[in-house]
Amino acid sequence: TTYADLFPTKVGRMVLDGVVAPDLTPEEINLGQAKGFERATLEWAAYCVEQGDDCPLGDSVEEVMTGLRSFLASVDGSPLPRTGDNAVPRLTEGWASLGIAAAMYDQGAWQTLVDATGVGQPVVDALRAARCEETLGAAGHRQDEAEDGGLDQP
């Protein structure tokens, strides 16, 4: 409202978007933002699951969230070598997290995030590998299928 006080003839109707309560501590602000991102990421995970086979991270919200965490840990330890953006020569956990967070601001970007994990792109191999590490035993077989030696696609 300071602007309205300073320039009353320039303000008719005014909408303040994204106003942060001045009495919140930095910790409270960060916690609120983290909760918002968690909520949006869970909603995106549900959206991804609704896409059926197009979601390489899993078949449930829990699997998608576990797969996303595994993917981020994977690129933290072994960044992907090329992103297609000269400013980002390697896809690290930080860059991947930033890209995921950016998509959470706009539901219109959710399909793009699902597509970024689509067949034929290097990211999908890392995502599927991360998902396999969560579900495969040391012998490379799913825990529940070890006796028949079968390995389903993740």
Count of individual beta strands = 0
Order of helices and strands: HHHHHH
Mean pLDDT: 75
How far is the first residue's CA from the last residue's CA?
54 Å
Helix tally equals: 6
What radius of gyration results from the CA coordinates? Answer: 21 Å
Structural commentary:
This protein is mostly helical and 154 residues long. It is 52% helix and 0% strand. It has six helices and no strands. α2 crosses α3, α3 (61-77) runs antiparallel to α4 and α3 (61-77) crosses α6. The longest helix has 25 residues, at 26-50. It is elongated and about 55 Å long. Residues 124-154 have low confidence and may be disordered.
SSE layout and pairing:
Elements: H1 2-6, H2 26-50, H3 61-77, H4 93-104, H5 110-116, H6 122-135
Helix pairs in contact: 2-3, 3-4, 3-6
Brief account:
This protein is mainly alpha-helical.
Task: Considering the chains and any ligands shown, give keywords for the structure.
154 residues, mainly alpha, elongated
